[in-house]
Structures are given as structure tokens and as C-alpha cells.
Amino acid sequence: MLINHPLLGPRDAAEFTCFGDASLLLRPDPGPNGEPDQAAMDAFHDYLHLRDNPAGTHQELWYHEQGDRSWLVVTRDTINHSIIKVELARNVKARNLKTREGAG
Amino acid sequence: MTEYQLRETAALGNTLIETEGGMLMEETGIALAAVTIRTGKARAFANAFSKRYDCPPPDPRSAVTVRRQTIIASALDQVFIRRKGEPAGLMAQLEKDFSQSATVTDQSDGWVQLALTGIRAGDVLERLAMIDCSDQAFPVGSAARTVMEHCGVIIVREKHKPVEGKRYLLLTQRSSAETVLHAILGSPPFRQ
Amino acid sequence: MDADFRLKGGLINRRKPLDFSFNGAGLSGYAGDTLASALLANGRHFVGRSFKYHRPRGILSAGVEEPNALVTIGTGAMADPNIRATVAELYDGMVARSQNHLGSLEWDLLSVNDAFSPLFGAGFYYKTFMWPAAFWEKLYEPMIRRAAGLGALSGQDDPSRYDKGYRHCDLLVIGSGPAGLMAALTAGRAGLRVILAEQDFIMGGRLNAERERIDGMPGAEWAAKACAELTAMDNVMMMPRTTIYGAYDHGVYGALERITDHLNDGEDGDGGDQPRQILWRIYSRRAVLAAGSIERPIAFGHNDRPGIMLAGSVREYANRYAVAAGRRVIVFTNNNDGWRTAHDLRSRGVEVAALIDTRSDIDLPAPAGVRVIQGSAITDTKGRTRVRSITLMSGEELACDSVAVSGGWSPTVHLTCHHRGRPKWDASIAGFIPAGEIPPGMDVIGAAAGKMATSEALQGGITAGTSAARDLGGKTVKMAMPDCEDRAFGIDPVWHIPSSRARAWVDFQNDVTTKDIRQSHLEGFRSVEHLKRYTTLGMATDQGKTANIPGLAVMAEISGKSMDEVGTTIFRPPYTPVPIGAFAGRGRGPDFMPTRIPPSHRWAEERGAVFVETGLWLRAQWYPQPGETHWRESVDREVIATRSSVGICDVSTLGKIDIKGADAGEFVNRVYANGFAKLPVGKVRYGLMLRDDGFVMDDGTTARMAENHFIMTTTTANAGGVYRHLEYCRQCLWPELDVALISATDQSAQFAVAGPNSRRLLEKIVDDGVDLSNAAFPFMACGAITICGGVEARLFRISFSGELAYELAVPARFGDALARVLMQAGEEFGVTPYGTEALNVMRIEKGHATANELNGQTSAHHLGMGRMLSPNKDFIGRIMAHRPELTRGDGIRLVGLKPVDPAKMLSAGAHFLEADAPSRASHDLGWMSSVAYSPILNSSIGLGFVKNGYERMNSTVRAVDFMRGTDIEVEITSPHFIDPEGRRLHD
After folding, report:
1. How many angstroms away from the CA of B86 is the closest CA of chain A?
2. Chain B residues with CB inside 8 Å of C737's CB?
3. Cβ contact, residue pair A80, C878, below 8 Å
């Protein structure tokens, strides 16, 4: 598989590690310091443990471990592996990410 | 006053291996610094860079050699700068040049610097590197950070004198340099 | 003198005769022969025994599709089983043996299986070997293992060297027949970077097997001319002996290049300096599949005897290898192509006793002197180790010594299916052609696309090459269409002869007959996927290249379905077998993974250290002294020496991350559970790092060297993971922070100097002006200093051992020298180098947690560090760390353990149970995470997690280790066995 790095061009996927759903970027608001309330715990539980598993377009996080150490958001079709878009994670605004179905 | 002194040890013992069509040499005595552009300071950095080197910073896939220094695009918002001599001197110069726009870290000892030269130098990379190191895709001035035999490596295509043959600079981390050396010597032209 | 069945001409090199042996018999052939062609030249057809029934088998084909002629080539460690003789390039001194017989090939004791054939029908193993149950392990399985399989491995290590490589091109052309050559020429002349891959050892594909002419010259000559032009082009790479075995994502193809298989490597693989094979990853922007087609047989009674071959292969042996398949050949066909074999054999002077066509009213020119029988079929054959006659539908028997069978040609679509492409049926050629999701960027041309005429192949090549050139920025070239001779294609889809009473084979290699397919259907296994698995049709090493289509067709007939309705199974890589050694490449033995060595490694080797692998690192485990015979002697000594005077240990392997920037403090504060924002410059602090799910990820000490400069350490094992985590936080969570990270693990050599005399030792090597007094450099201080006459260093007063201790870091180039200087300067104190074992003993004596305790399943509260979760800031892991299960008061707690009987040894991994509790998981109280023998306390000690550990202080539980069979009473104590108040740290 090749990842078309936005700055470096196509690179073999062997240079990267995949970390799954890019919803990991949407870290919930943790609320006030100290012991958290139930709402925060529920939000973090969802954020950390619940995932859609689409057959089709999927936004995921890839880390260019053996390259420039950049984190990327890759939009990939899980059925035929075609890669539709690759962006630097830091450029992806939170609101541009597809939120999980039913997530707040 | 302490009577003890510390002598330097080269990671690969200043190795130099020659074969038909290729030569591999460990380069020592070359300071290496990582210069990381501070958040929001890209323009300030570019200005400071031009002031020092009379040219813009290298693009993500390239390296420039100017004023006896080689500047390599190594990571997001980061360049490596190479200069013959003691690390302290280079760090001092860079800290002065880029005090506002970047942070400077000495990496002279973390990396081993290898010069791979010869008409068949490219044969090594064809066996070990997944990126396209051909003349078309990787002309002089190209740089890439990638992996060889599970070891991270920075590859720079440099000008070679005499004109025949190619010259590559390989930077790899010190602790696994012997593994990388072994991999290079197990490839053509060093081994068929 | 030529062997008996040699003809004139061919593409072999008669100036290079070669000697070889088969089953001990010395034979000869020529350069350009395969083992199969050389055997046939010597009249040897009977070369193996079939898988199940051990029936005598001969060579069926001339290519990779060969199901029968599997041999073992080579001797000693180089003996390689299951080689298809039809693609084994002959070399001088080749030693080949037949396989799969008990006793000799001629008198195989297992041929008795054939008599029991009714018992070995489809799926017999699902119905047998079940009773009695005990017999499975003792009798049935060993029996089956002996009988199963074809060849046998040498049992020795594979001495061959394999390599890997990476090539890039604009256009990958797969196959060098007329279609592929035209595509390569077109694209090559247009200036594209082309790779032309051909699995055979000469280029030209089918042109080498046929007598047709292109541009007025023999096809083989035209191919050679095209290859000469391609070879001269700098932008074209020719790769013969290279199989493209897989089509992967995004234009990446897997290729296996055979470098030395055609050379004599002797018994030890010492044939030369080259690797045996290279596994290439080819990155292409576009690809052209010109893989041709593969002929299939017809199933009739006893169609598996030696001498019964594919018709196209018979003429390939005649035309390319100058070998006659027999003296009296019968041709049996359902299509026009079989007629070419009759013509070619006659023109070379081989007698063709009859040409039998299942069709009637065929108006093709018949070869002179050949009896043509239309509208008929073969129903049976006779002959044990060689066919000697056939029987027609009419009952007439005809004598022969070879039968050339043509059931039609199947396009070689395999690579088009590697992305789940589903071929579709083309009735005009009675074959499947590529369809569905074929790999993006791939064009299929020529016979592989079902275009069977030579002109279609040539035109397809021009079209594909031109389109690639246009799309990829090549020059425009005008390609002239070569002159060629086309033949009309006509076929009657006859797959089997129903009037055959005897068994009729479909899959020769797995011994599957039409009867098996009928039985499969009868028992309800009717889908193509079930048919395959139930009968094993298509599951052998040839993956059904000659069997799949006929098998499907028979099933379709029985089910009353169309071929499209039946479909095919999915072809997956590899197209032909790839040795596991080729996938391994250089990754064997010590080369499997990189080795990382710390700066003092050479010095440690000189001192005779024993090393241990810690992840990728080699670390000194202990440094035996002369006279020491057991590791405990060395380790005990190192611990005592360090605690009583001074020891040094290379700790360079711990991860070091350099953190700089205006927001460096804020960044560090957010990734650690405990506070760091207010850490003063010149101080170090222990940091606890959590994952966002609340579990402890790592720990380390982080030093503030300057207002905006921190150096973080991590455990050795987690260095990469923590760095990745920090980059994730920096780039993904908080890109607005002004912070830069860089790994500095290899930049410095770092030594722990520990023990009551550690300060005195260091005072001898630091430069004037460096004040190491307790007041100037207290516990947890850090700073930049110089040593040994101006060498820049960093000193950290931290202690893993619990003694007065420091860690000294210098640029790695001085690491070797520093180890030696510390030993010299410390000689007066009896300085002792210590390794990871002593390091571990001492940290357990102090109760310090490491990876054993920070195993990803424990929380801050479990570790007794609940109070380190800062209430004053947000940090990674804060929310989930407060989950009730992780914080509950009666949860597991890290405690110390001592055996009640001081003579007993604790074992790590033991689980804790109450004295009277049954030994079951439901009564589990926790586990022992680390153990060591303390030479200070003269006792085995341990750290572990016990439920309600603090309430249970000083009580006893049992430590049960089922693996080692021990059950010991242990006392729960404080984990700080030595100097619990930490007085030594502050000396």
C-alpha cells in the first residue's frame, strides 16, 4: 500500500504505523480539574472505546514513524483500499472530521 | 585539575570499504544540529535562514549545500545542518542565527554519517531502500528520510566529483549503525 | 549421439551438452532444455506417482501448470522438493529424483492404494479416521503424515541466501509473448521506464513454441530481435526468470527473480556469491498483463497415464526443444488448436496415428497421411507405465505411445483476481476472461484477455503501450503493426466424455476425478467454494491451473447451471510457489532485527561481560570475574560492591527525549500525571505517564535544564512508544503549543555511578569549579558541567539503586573512554561495573517499579502512586484514571513479598491465594511481578500486587506457581526492603 504524503509524495505503508479511527483527534472537553464527573467519564469512554467499523470510506490516523514523524489523517476505502485523501493531522480542523454516528 | 582525559571513538571505527564500483566511508569530525522551527515562526525562520545562507530553506524533499554547510529537510518544520568541525561552534552559530525562530539541538553524536559513492552506489539502495533512488526521481539535491532493514535513515544525493558515479550521504542512528553497515556491505556492489 | 527422441532444430544449444541424472540413471541433454524436455528426449515419460492413488504418472505439460512431474532436484541441504520438471532449467550435473513412492518409482508399495480407490472418494477424510478416538494420535495421524504430501524436505537448514529489492517503473509488462513485447517496445520507444518481466528463462512466450511467422521470420527470431532492441534501451529493464506472483495495492507488484536455480550450487549452496533468489517489490504507475493462456485437458477414462499430454505442450516440445513425445502420437481435441499439433508433428517427421475431433463437419486442412476421425472421442486407454492404446466411442482400439489432448485454452487471469476481480464467462472461447474489480492501472491484452489471435495480441500491445505513454507523459511514437498469420478459433465446449466408464481425471495432482465431482454434488457440496474444499480440486501446488475450469464445467453440467452462474473461486497470491526463504530475505538469525549497542559495548566485551537482549539492545547482564562459575556469584558481588563502595552501570539505553520551546513546561505538565510546570531549573523529578484510558504507560525522570529546556527519560522498552505518544500530543491534540521534540537516546552515553563512594569518584574526574557537595548538588539536582578537561557533560543526581548515586551523560563519542576513565579513577574505591541483573536486584530491594509492574494493566493507585494524580491540572489519562475499578480502596496494591521460610526461592508469575482457598482463578488475590535474591538481606524477595495489600501488611498468603509446581508461604511487607527512609539518597 502507498500513502501519498502531502509533502513527501507516495511512500510505502511499511514506513508508517496505523492507529485506527481519526476520531481519536476529537478529545472531549475534560471539564474542571480534579476528580471528573460522570458526564466526562462517559464522554471519554465513548471517545476511547467505541468505534464505527465502516465498509467504505474511513478516516484514520497514520504515523510516519520511519519517515518525517508526521501524523496524518488518511481517508481510505476499507473495501478496495483506495486512498482518497491524505492530510497533515495538525491541519485538520476538528469540525472537518466526520463525527461518529450518534456522537455529540 | 583532573588528570583524566577522554578520547573520541568513532561509531564504526572510521570504516572505509572499497570495491569495484562502490566505496563506503564513515565521516567523522562533522557537527550535526537539528533546527526545529518554532510554532508560528515559519516566516521569521525563512528570513533568518536567507540572511545566513542567501537562499530559502530547502523544500521537504531536498537538501542544499551552501557556505560549506549542508542543510537537509529532515522532518516537519525541521532541518538538519551539517558542518565540518566541533559541535560547540556550530551550535553557537545556529543559536545566534535562529534565536527567535527556532530551537537548536546537538545531534552530532546521535547519528553516524556515511558517504556511499561510486558508479554502482545506487545498487545498494535498490536492495535496501523502498524509495525511488534513480537519477530521474532522486537527482542531486534530493533528500529523504526513510527506513532500511528496519533502521531509520536519512538519504541525501550529493554532487560527486569526479562527475562519473553517484554520491549519497546516509545518516543513521548511532546505536544501530553496525546493522546498517552490515546491510550495505551485504548488497551489490560490495556483495553480489 | 542424440537421445532417441530428439528431432532436428529447436531453440536448444547443441554446442553445450549437459549431463544429469534421474533416479540414479545418467542421462544427457542440452543447454536450453528443461529437465522435462531432456527426460522426454531420452524417452522417459514415467516420472512420478499420483498423490492419493499412487498411479504412474508422466509429464502432462511444458509449463508452470504442470500437475504430475514433480521432482526433487539437488542433494544434501540443497535438495528441493516439488519442483516442476517442466520449468526446471537443465544444468550440468543436475541430480533429480521422483517423489511420492514407497520403494522404487517402478515398484511403489503404496500403489495398492489404487485398488482401494472406492474408499478414497471425495471427502473421505471427513468420514473416516474417527473411531476409536484414541487411535487418532497414535495411529491415524502418523499414518496420514507418512502418506500425505508429495516431496520431502532435506531436514537441514536452507543454505541458500535470499535477498529483497525495490524497483520503480512507469509501466510493468507481465509476459514477453507477442502482446507483451509490443507493449514494451511501444512504451520503451516512447521513453517510459519499463520493466518487462518473464517467468521463463528466454523471452518470447508462446512464439518460442510455435512455427508461425511474424514479419516474414520465425516467431522466435522476431521475439529475439525485439528483445535485442529492448535490452539496448536504457529506460527498459528486462527481467527474465522473474515471476510476477501478486498484484498488491496501488500498483505494487510482488516478483520472484530466480538468480541461481539454473546453476549448479552443489550440496552446500556454495555455487557463488549471488543470492539464490530475489524477492522484488515493483512499484508501477501502470501495468500490462500479457500472461497468455493455459491449455486444459479433456476428462476421459484413464486419461492420466504417462504419455498422455496437452497438445499445445506436445508441439512446444517438438518446436522449441526438438523432442518427439512419442513415435506414434494420437491427437484428441475439441477445438481448432489441436490440429496445429498434428500438422507440426507431421512436418517434423513424427507419425500421427489419428486426429480425433469431438466436433463433426469441421472443414480444416488435414495434415498429410493422418487419419481424421470427427464426431468421436476417446473413452478409455490402456498401458501401465506408458499409454499403449486408446479406445474410441465406437469401441475401436488404436495403438499409440503418446496422446496429445486439447480441451481448449483458459486465459491466465489470476493476477486480475488479486483485488477480488471476478472473471466472467466468454462462450466464444469457452473460457473466463478478466472482469469485475481488476487491479487499478492494469490493462489486460492478448490471450489473457481472451483475444486468442496473434494479430489481436500484437495490436493489444500497441494500444496498451500507446495509452500508457500518453497518460504517463511519454513521447508519441508510431508503431507499425507487424505481419502475422492468424488462425481461426473454434471450439466445442466438451469437458468430459460421459460414455467413459472408467475413472476420468480432472485434477491430476490431487487425484480428483469426475466421479468425485458427482459425489460432491450428490452430498450437497455444490457451490464452487464447497466443491473445491470437499474434493480438494484445485488445492494442490498447481492450484488447479489445468483442473479448475474443467472441474467447474462438470459441476455446472451436473447442476444444470451456466458457467457464469457457477463462477470461479478467488485466486490469491502467489501465482506460483514462492519459497519461505524468499519472503524472509535477509531476516534470518541475528539479521532478523537490528541490534542496538550502547557506547560501552566494546569495553564490556573486553571485560567478558555476559549480554542480554533487551528489545533490540544488547546490554551487559553481569561481568563475571575469573573464578566465578555461577551467575549468582557475579551478581551478588556486584550488588554488595555497589552498596558498600561504588559501582558503575551503562544506562544509555533508556529513552531520552529533548523538549524545547516556550511551552515546553506546559507540554510536560500535560503528559505527566504529577506536576511539572513549577519544576525549578536545575532539578529532576520522577514522572508518571498515563495512557488516556487511565492505565500507567511509562515512567521516567525529567530534568529541567533551562526555563524552556527539558530532558525526559523513558524506560528502554517504551522509548519509541513514548516518543510517538508525545508527537501525537504535539501534532494532533495541541498543535498550538510552542514545543519541539527530538529523540536524544543515541546522542549521549550515560552511566549510573552509585554507592557511598560515588561522589568521591566523580570528584576525581569533574573539572575545577564543579561543586558536587551535598549543598551545591543535592538529591534530584541536575546541571551542565564539564569533565576531563573541558568535555561537556550533564550530571543528574538520581538513584535507581537507592544508594547515593548520580547519572553522568557525555556525547556518545566519549562513552567508551568514559567507562575506562571511571574504572581508572575508581580503582582506589574498588569500583565495580554492574549489569542489568544487579541493577534489577537493587531496584527490587528499593521497591522501584519497572516494566514488570508497569505492564499496561496497572493503574497509579495499584502502584501506590494515587496521590501523584494532580488535582490542579488536566493531563493525559486524568479522566479514566478515576474509574472506580482503578481507584477502589480494596483493589490490588504493589507490596513487597518475602518467603516465610528463608531457604525458599520466590518465582515471578506466581499467584497469591489465601492459605485455605482452593487453587482457582476465582480466589486469585494477585500476582508476583518481580523477584530477586538479595545478598544484602540473604533472602529471596519479590514485588507483587495483592488485593487490599496495605490492609494485609505483615500477614501471610500462599504464592502458587503452577508452571514450576511450587506453593510457598510468603509474608506481605513494604516494598522498600532497604533504607526505607531514603537516608542514603540524601547523603
Report:
1. 27
2. 39
3. no
Q: Which domain holds residue B158?
A: 16-28+110-185
Are C281 and B130 in contact (CB < 8 Å)? yes
One domain for residues B139 and B159: yes
Counting as contact any 3 or more CB pairs under 8 A, the partners of C are A, B
Claim to verify: residue B22 and residue B114 sit in the same structural domain = yes
**Chain A: residue nearest C872 by CA?**
A33
Across residues C438-459, what is the average pLDDT?
97
Cα–Cα nearest to B33, from A53, C296, C658: C658
Between positions 32 and 71 of B, the ones with CB within 8 A of C are: 34, 36, 38-40
Res. C136 pLDDT band, cuts 50 70 90? confident
CA distances from B172 to B6, B110, C41, C584 (A): 24, 8, 57, 23
CB contact under 8 A, B76 and A66: no
- Mind listing the pLDDT tens digit for each residue in B39-57? 999 999 999 999 999 999 9
What pLDDT is stored for residue C271 in this prediction? 52
Residues of chain B contacting C792 with CB distance shorter than 8 Å: 88
- Chain C residues inside the 8 Å CB shell of B106: 747, 811
HEC per residue, C229-294? HHHHCCCEEEECCEEEEEECHHHEEEEEEECCCCCCCCCCCCCCCCCCEEEEEEEEEEEEECCCEE
Interface residue B10 vs chain C (CB under 8 A):
yes
C724 to A17: CB separation less than 8 angstroms, yes or no? yes
Q: ipTM of the predicted structure?
A: 0.98
Check which CATH number belongs to the domain holding B180 and give it. Answer: 3.30.1360.120
Residue B8 is placed in which grid cell? 573520541
Name the band, by pLDDT with cuts 50, 70 and 90, for residue C311.
Answer: very high
Spatial neighbors of C703 by CB under 8 A, at least 6 apart, are C683, C684, C710, C711, C782, C794, C796
| Burial (CB count <10 Å: 0-12, 13-18, 19+), residue C904 | middle
Cβ proximity of C160 and C269 under 8 Å: yes
Q: What 3-state class would DSSP assign to A15?
A: helix
The string of pLDDT tens digits covering residues B118-172 is 999 999 999 999 999 999 999 999 999 999 999 999 999 999 877 689 999 999 9
User: Which residues 56-85 of chain A have a CB within 8 Å of chain B?
Assistant: 66-70
Q: Is the same domain home to B100 and B43?
A: yes
* Nearest-by-Cβ selection for C250 from A2, A34, A65: A2
Chain A residues with beta carbon closer than 8 angstroms to that of C870: 33
Residue B163: per-residue pLDDT: 65
* pLDDT higher than 60, residue C811: yes
Domains of chain C: 13-124 (3.10.20.440), 162-293+411-471 (3.50.50.60), 297-407 (3.50.50.60), 495-559 (1.10.10.1100), 601-653+747-842 (3.30.1360.120), 656-743 (3.30.70.1400), 889-986 (2.40.30.110)
End position of a domain, from candidates B38, B71, B106: B106
pLDDT for A95: 45
Look at domain A2-28+39-96 and name its CATH class: alpha beta
Of the partner residues A14, A69, A70, the one whose CB lies closest to the CB of residue B130: A14
Report whether pLDDT(A36) > 90: yes
DSSP string, C357-423: ESSSS---PPPTT--EEES--EEEEE-SSS--EEEETTS-EEE-SEEEEE--EEE--GGGGTTS---
Q: Give the number of domains in chain B.
A: 2
Contact B146 A15 (CB under 8 A): yes
Q: DSSP letter string over C959-982? A: EEETTTTEEEEEEEE-S--S-TT-
Does B88 sit within 8 Å of C792, measured CB to CB?
Answer: yes
pLDDT above 60 for A101: no
